[in-house]
Each structure stands twice: as C-alpha cells, then as structure tokens.
Design goal:
Strand 10 and strand 11 form a beta hairpin. Helix 1 (about 5-20) packs parallel to helix 7 (about 240-255) and helix 4 (about 190-200) crosses helix 7 (about 240-255). The two termini are about 15 Å apart. The chain has helices at about 5-20, 140-145, 175-180, 190-200, 210-215, 225-235, 240-255, 270-275; strands at about 25, 30, 40-50, 55-60, 75-80, 85-90, 95-100, 110-115, 120-125, 285, 290-295, 310. With about 325 residues, the protein is of the alpha+beta class. Helix content is about 25%, strand content about 20%. Pfam families: Fapy_DNA_glyco, Neil1-DNA_bind. Keywords: Chromosome, Cytoplasm, Cytoskeleton, DNA damage, DNA repair, DNA-binding, Glycosidase, Hydrolase, Lyase, Multifunctional enzyme, Nucleus. It is found in: Chromosome; Cytoplasm, Cytoskeleton, Microtubule organizing center, Centrosome; Nucleus.
Amino acid sequence: MPEGPELHLASLFVNETCRGLVFGGCVEKSSVSRNPEVPFESSAYHISACARGKELRLTLTPAPGAQPPQEPLALVFRFGMSGSFQLAPAHALPPHAHLRFYTAPPAPRLALCFVDIRRFGHWDPGGEWQPGRGPCVLLEYEQFRGVGVGLMHPGCPSRENVLRNLSDKAFDRPICEALLDQRFFNGIGNYLRAEILYRLKIPPFEKARAVLEALQQHRLSPELTLSQKIRAKLQNPDLLELCHLVPKEVVQLGGKGYGPEHGEEDFAAFRAWLRCYGVPGMSSLRDRHGRTIWFQGDPGPMAPKGPSTSEQGPSQDTKGPETPY
C-alpha cells in the first residue's frame, strides 16, 4: 500500500515528467471507475503536484489565452492499495488507467494516467486536504511533533501535534495501531511502522500512551551547545523523529515505481533497505484491524492471544482500515 514516501515520490515524478508539457482537452475517466467526473476542459494547461502525508494534490492550470476561460482546478488523490501515476503514449494506455490527462496536439500525444489496479484509490475535485488528517510526517515535522525538543527546531510549539493530544483514546491502543491513525501520523503506514518500532526495539503491542509520554519527560542537558544537542538527537532519534527520518530515507532511495527503469529492479534498493517488514526470520501478528505487524522479540503486553508466526515475505493486508479516514 502506498505510504507517505510513495505519495511524495509520485509528486516529484509528476512535476519532473510534466515540466514543459502542455496538456489539452477534457480529463477522461474510465467507465468502470466509481470516482467523480472531473469538470475541466482547456485548450492548453499545465499540471503540477504536491504531496501531504497520504494525499497528493494535482493542480491543472490553464495557460494564458487558453479556451474556454477556466480557473485552475485542484484534485486531491488518495492512492488506496495500489494507486500510482504513469506517463504513457496516448495510443498505449496502461491497464487500469482510471483517470487520464492528455497532452495537446500536434506533438505525439501522451497521457498522464492515474493507475489503480485494485480501485481503492479516490480523487476529490474539491482540491482540499482531508480536514481530519494531521500534519505530514515528512514535510511538517514541527507541527507533527508539537511540544518538546525536536530534531529540526528544538522546543518549537505547534497548533497540531502528537504530544499535546496524548489524552486522546487513540493512545489507549497498542503503539503499532496508533501509528496508523492518520489524525496524528499522517503518512505512516504498515511497512514504516514496522521499521520504526524495530529500530527502537519497542514491542509493537506496548500501550501507545506509555511509549509517547516518555518523550515528554526527555530533555537534553541545558549545558550542551546547540551543535552537541543536534549531534545527540541525530545519534539517538526518538520515535517521533524516526517518523520523520525513516520516510526521508525511503524518498532518498528513489525508485518505488518512479525510477528510471520502471521495472522489477526499480524496487531492489527498497527491498535491501528493509530491516524488519517481511524480512525472513521476523515474527508477525495481526492487529485488531487485521493488519500484519512485523517485529522481533516480545510483541508486548497488549498482543492478541495466540502464537506469532514467522513468514518469508509480507502478506497482502486487505482487512480493515489503516486509518479512520
């Protein structure tokens, strides 16, 4: 399932491949998609993208003098289980291309396609980020973290955050389940939660509040210089810092379907990067939503009853929501 890094990589892909291209005509939706029609038509327009957590905003901007006169239109995409963007020749569209933006003639026509094999993805022509989602763990770290000493801006307060909301009932749950709540961890998904908890040796079924309250108590010595504080945080990042740093590592790997090869080897660096998720020898359990959590060692006091299993690769988690949104 695409997580925050994949949405961010998708936005970079759209901006890179669409730079210099002029699109034209109507936006075309497949007949089998249940998503809404896109009410946009222009003789010449440009496409740009930005990502926030598990959402991507695509903006269609008419060129000067384009007809009919049209205001820019923004679409917000959620990728579901299998969404991605591809640029393809208009005469050779990829299978499952459920939304298509065509380049204007006379050059050989291309199509920017939203491809979604499993059809769980969604687009919203309203263009607004979903209001219930918290700050992006990749791009809005200070707001995401909130109170306390953070890696990027120590002591930065915020209007939306994790540490100011620990009384929320979401933190009564195991930490592995809380990490999928997009109100607080916008961009974290199944493989990221496993990798983050594994690096910190936190049992996945520890109570979330107990894990996070400890971060409120942690303060670096005021006698340390700023450079010493930054070095200490880089060497020993806490859970919220890893929620920012681990996705950044994935983005820096590139690939994930948006690399130059667009083939199986495109994912090789990512597979080599994984330390826990789907790695042979690791254990796994299902959380209360039916999602598989990978871990090593003791699962923690809130683990479901029954033995854990050791598998050779990640299963396809299709049960239950990863997020309430």
